[in-house]
Task: inverse folding
């Protein structure tokens, strides 16, 4: 009866702290005084602003258009006036500011005209385009545009659809609560996914520390007009990582550098399914999401929050700020990012605001040398040898880190979590990855420069030869009068051929040395690259500042 | 600014090393009970020497002394070395051995985490090569000894070489079962005849086999406490038992039962406490199996065919040399590389 589950390597059991924020139901956060909507909320291109300062906007109106393929639109979360289109602090590991559209709400919350889509009778590519316009992106954290994942591609179908309700990070409960309270709507979203991907089976993976969510989803599944299997999976961090959940439920592994559709599996966060349902069956773009506010607050709770709500206003809903508050994290304690200020707005990626205090999150003791105890390797869900990667990353032996599959690291942080020497291992891997990307970028630039240089050399050589040929032609013309023409022509044609062949060789050579890593990376890693580039930019800016000072 | 994770498991090098020390306590207690309190003197002497040397070395490096003393690794080295040496050996033997373990094997190679060779076994190897006579003066089990040295008498003998009036060294010391086996075999006695000697117990040596059993229990505790994995001890034991078993089956008169080999000398201490030193051992699961099996096999070959009564130290050091090679060729398959190898 029960489904056979599979084990991935390692994993850890950090303290859950989930009950703190599940005692109260999801509350609708009140309209904030101001909404700041970042144009870049996902990997790929930022959206292009299509409104002007001073313009009146309606709730749900597109204010930023999708640009490029990996991109979705952003929308006005409420009706009001655009007051600024400018750089603003955003939630990003770099702490850098980014372009945002600021809206002063008029308090009326007036919707633009919107309505349900008849998805069953729509052309699939038109439907996907609609989802792109409606701003639907993954709410599990990666914010990958959903329309791309909802394309069955050449295979015509993706047999297995997995809804990810595992939510393995401590403290976070937004998926737990949405499953408890809106199970039927989540499955309505799953119905759309199932239709678009022509799935044979629909699975919902939920960690067994959420019995209420499992019960609610099972109850909703029994009312469903298609088969949905709600599977309780063992509570084990990072069991909610897409790759780990796929392994747990199907026993299959996503090939390195590949996508889950390669093995016939599509995974979506349960929150994404809910948003998809709102978008398709109600025509509502993605302008709100469930956010857990927890940690060092008086009343931890989940809120349905408009995208663009400033963090400080959201945190205030849980009571007055505690004196020992030492910072804010977006996401959970294992993979979340430190926020530079409480000024940043909630974005599509914001699943949790974790308020820090030194008591809840004490700084780690000083790092000791690695004793190669391999606790990290035993805990690594990617079956890596973190102690070797650490050794090579520390020695800046980046070639070796790649040999030891650095790029299969999902940065879940369990290695750092278990390390008895308190070495911030995952930081070394992030550092090594960013260095490798930077180097390959430099190498690409150098290749381009060399190619130009070689071409210039070639051109100079060709011009020289052409001049010489011309001179020779003139000389021979003088010698033989007007009769000789064909032999010289064939000689110059041979030269041209030789030049052409040299150009071809140079081209082939250039193509042969294309760097390995940046091309054909999965989208998640492209996002990492973007983040790391931003971090580097910030460091450069800081260095510049200090030089100027 | 530190990035995530912001939480960590409660663990530290100190806790690991303390658990290793705790796991040795039952063995030491039985040692004292069956062989007298001399081992307490050598353990203390080795510990003090190790801590003094560790402090000086860490200071010379310009590192903070406190965290490195608190990590407990010097104490573990000292205890493992002391437990491998004859407990009534002269004080300078302990000091020289500890010096080679802590200063030469560990700190000259870069300190904690950087040594290629097991420090305690380097100390032991230096001593057995340099001072073979002193290294073979083992106390008799109290049940067989003609006399009994108290704590103060032991300390006096270790530091001054003077025994209480009227007592001769022969009365308190005797050859170990492994030594006895070796010399008796050279005298053309058969295993059956040799094992009738009183120094042989029911499986290993009289008294010694109980200490070995305690090491085994301590080792199982380390496994349950997840300080060590099962790979190295299991492979060590299998390597020793299978190699010994093959010889024994071929000629039981000449080659003693493999169980005897497991129950004597440094086998259990080596399998659970010495070969499992993470710094100098193999790290991959398959690598650990090869590493452990290699030590077990070499231990048997050195004991049986080599020139030394016990082979654990040399077996460990020889396999230490192989570790980089073993690790490099036994890398486990990474997630996503199992079903389909990338076309490279």
Result:
């Amino acid at each position: 009866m029960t489904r056979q589950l599979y084990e991935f390597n390692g994993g850890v059991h950090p303290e859950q702290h989930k009950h703190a924020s599940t005692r109260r139901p999801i509350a609708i956060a009140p309209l904030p005084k101001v909404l700041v909507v970042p144009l870049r909320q996902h990997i790929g291109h930022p959206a292009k602003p299509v409104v002007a300062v001073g313009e009146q906007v309606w709730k749900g109106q597109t204010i930023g258009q999708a640009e490029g393929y990996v991109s979705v639109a952003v929308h006005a979360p409420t009706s009001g006036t655009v007051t600024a289109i400018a750089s603003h602090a955003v939630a990003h590991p770099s702490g850098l500011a980014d372009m945002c559209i600021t809206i002063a709400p008029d308090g009326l919350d007036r919707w633009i005209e919107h309505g349900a889509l008849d998805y069953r009778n729509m052309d699939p590519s038109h439907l996907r385009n609609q989802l792109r316009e409606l701003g639907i992106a993954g709410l599990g954290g990666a914010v990958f545009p959903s329309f791309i994942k909802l394309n069955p591609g050449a295979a015509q179908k993706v047999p297995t659809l997995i809804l990810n309700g595992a939510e393995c990070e401590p403290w976070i409960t937004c998926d737990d609560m949405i499953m408890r309270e809106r199970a039927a709507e989540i499955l309505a979203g799953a119905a759309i996914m199932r239709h678009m991907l022509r799935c044979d089976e629909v699975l919902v993976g939920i960690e067994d520390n959420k019995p209420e969510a499992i019960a609610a989803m099972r109850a909703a599944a029994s009312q469903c007009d298609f088969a949905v299997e709600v599977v309780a999976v063992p509570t084990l961090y990072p069991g909610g990582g897409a790759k780990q959940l796929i392994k747990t439920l199907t026993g299959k592994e996503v090939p390195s550098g590949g996508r889950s559709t390669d093995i016939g599996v599509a995974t979506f966060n349960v929150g994404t399914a809910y948003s998809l349902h709102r978008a398709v069956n109600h025509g509502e773009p993605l302008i709100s999401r469930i956010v857990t506010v927890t940690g060092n607050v008086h009343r931890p709770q989940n809120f349905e929050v408009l995208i663009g709500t400033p963090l400080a206003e959201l945190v205030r809903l849980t009571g007055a700020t505690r004196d020992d508050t030492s910072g804010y994290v977006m996401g959970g304690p294992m993979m979340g990012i430190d926020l530079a200020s409480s000024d940043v707005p909630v974005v599509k990626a914001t699943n949790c605001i974790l308020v820090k205090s030194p008591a809840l999150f004490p700084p780690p003791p000083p790092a000791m040398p690695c004793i190669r105890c391999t606790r990290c390797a035993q805990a690594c869900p990617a079956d890596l040898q973190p102690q070797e990667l650490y050794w090579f990353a520390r020695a800046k032996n980046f070639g070796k880190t790649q040999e030891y599959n650095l790029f299969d690291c999902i940065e879940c942080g369990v290695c750092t979590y278990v390390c008895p020497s308190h070495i911030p291992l995952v930081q070394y891997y992030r550092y090594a990855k960013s260095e490798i990307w930077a180097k390959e970028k430099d190498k690409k630039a150098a290749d381009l420069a060399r190619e130009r240089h070689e071409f210039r050399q070639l051109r100079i050589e060709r011009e020289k030869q052409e001049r010489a040929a011309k001179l020779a032609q003139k000389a021979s013309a003088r010698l033989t009068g007007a009769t000789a023409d064909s032999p010289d022509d064939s000689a110059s044609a041979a030269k041209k051929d030789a030049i052409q062949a040299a150009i071809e060789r140079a081209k082939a050579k250039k193509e042969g040395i294309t760097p390995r890593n940046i091309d054909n990376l999965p989208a998640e890693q492209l996002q990492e690259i973007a983040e790391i580039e931003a971090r580097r930019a910030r460091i450069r800016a800081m260095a510049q500042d200090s030089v100027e000072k | 600014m530190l990035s995530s994770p912001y939480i960590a498991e409660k663990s530290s090098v100190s806790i690991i090393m303390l658990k290793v020390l705790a796991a040795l306590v039952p063995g030491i207690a039985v040692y004292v009970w069956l062989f007298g309190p001399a081992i307490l003197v050598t353990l203390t002497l080795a510990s003090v020497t190790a801590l003094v040397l560790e402090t000086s070395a860490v200071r010379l490096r310009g590192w903070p002394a406190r965290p490195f003393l608190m990590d407990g690794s010097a104490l573990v080295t000292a205890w493992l070395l002391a437990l491998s040496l004859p407990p009534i050996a002269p004080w300078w033997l302990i000091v020289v051995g500890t010096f080679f373990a802590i200063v030469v094997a560990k700190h000259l190679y870069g300190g904690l985490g950087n040594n290629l060779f097991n420090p305690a076994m380097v100390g032991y190897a230096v001593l057995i090569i340099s001072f073979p006579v002193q290294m073979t003066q083992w106390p008799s089990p109290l049940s067989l000894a003609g006399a009994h040295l108290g704590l103060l008498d032991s300390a006096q003998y270790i530091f001054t070489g003077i025994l209480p009036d009227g007592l001769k060294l022969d009365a308190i010391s005797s050859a170990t079962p492994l030594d006895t086996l070796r010399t008796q075999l050279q005298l053309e006695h058969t295993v059956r005849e040799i094992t009738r000697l009183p120094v042989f117990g029911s499986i290993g040596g009289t008294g010694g086999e109980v200490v070995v059993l305690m090491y085994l229990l301590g080792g199982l505790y380390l496994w349950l406490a997840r300080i060590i994995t099962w790979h190295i001890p299991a492979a060590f034991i299998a390597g020793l038992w299978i190699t010994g078993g093959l010889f024994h089956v071929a000629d039981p008169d000449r080659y003693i039962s493999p169980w005897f080999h497991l129950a004597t000398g440094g086998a259990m201490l080596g399998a659970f406490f010495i070969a499992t030193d993470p710094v100098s051992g193999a790290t991959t699961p398959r690598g650990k199996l090869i590493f452990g099996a290699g030590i077990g096999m070499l231990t048997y070959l050195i004991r049986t065919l080599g020139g030394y009564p016990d082979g654990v130290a040399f077996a460990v050091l020889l396999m230490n040399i192989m570790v980089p090679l073993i690790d490099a060729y036994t890398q486990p398959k990474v997630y996503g590389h199992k079903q389909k190898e990338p076309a490279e």
Notes: The first strand of chain A starts at residue 27 and ends at 28. Chain A has a mean pLDDT of 90. Chain A touches chain B through 64 residues (CB under 8 Å).
